[in-house]
Amino acid sequence: MKKFLMPSVMILSFAAVMGAQTADWKGFYVGGSLGGALGRAAATTTAVFSPTGYFAQSSIPVVAEVGAQHPKDNGLAGGITAGYTRMRGMWLYGVEIDFGAMGMSGSQTGTAPYPVNPLTTLTITQSVKTNWLLTVRPRIGVVRGKVLYYLTGGLAITDVNYQEVFTDTFADCTENGGVKTTKAGWTAGGGIEYQASPRWSVKVEYLYAGFGTVSTTSTNLMGFSPPIPFPTNVFTHTASLHANVIRGGFNYRF
User: Fold this and answer.
1) pLDDT of 114-173, one tens digit each?
2) pTM reported for the whole predicted model
3) Helices marked H in 36-177 — which ranges?
4) CB-based contacts of 197: which residues, under 8 Å, 6+ apart?
5) Alpha-carbon 180 to chain mean position
6) 241 CB contacts (<8 Å, ≥6 apart)?
7) Which CATH number fits domain 25-253: 3.40.190.10, 2.40.160.20, 2.60.120.10, 3.30.10.20?
8) Cα gap 219→56, rounded to integer Å
């Protein structure tokens, strides 16, 4: 009797495990998330030399050196989620959309003396900010018991607000430039989701998002008193942004 009992117990145990591995995750769901966004931006400001302009030729490399900055953009991230999944055995696949806050904000300031007059300096301040994040992502994963392990990636869209201000102490010169735009990029990451009940689940997720580069030019350099314009000294401003989003959340399945 014992000879037949042990294989039967093993078969039942294996069947129970396989049944747990194929827990039902399919269907529509909604949810929410909250976490943080650790952003990194690369901002640059350069100017061109002009014989009829304000800068000495030796000042142009200094503008570029001071204008090469890396503001650190950190802030909260969170919002609402909606999605749909299907299953084939223990494999899950579907699509997810989320929208919410990504309040990253950071700035950096650099200063250096003018080569022609080391007693005077130029200063450049650059900032990069975002307010929100939208993603549309396919999702694929594998179910183990009540736990879903998944990878995801797709479209990411955010608002980028890049601003720059130039000043100096030689002739009280000022200049500014900036870009406010909606910027599309890409995102990829993964997460772990636990099915607390047939309808409710909780998750922890990481996403990397890159948004490329924004760029603009300005010709509004002004100096001396009364103010004199120097439009031939064209400034070029660029900024690129990427973010690491770490968040926890919940989903409700219908």
Assistant:
1) 999 999 999 999 999 999 999 999 999 999 999 999 999 999 999 999 999 999 999 999
2) 0.84
3) 60-66
4) none
5) 16
6) 39, 40, 41, 73, 128, 130, 158, 160, 183, 210, 211
7) 2.40.160.20
8) 17
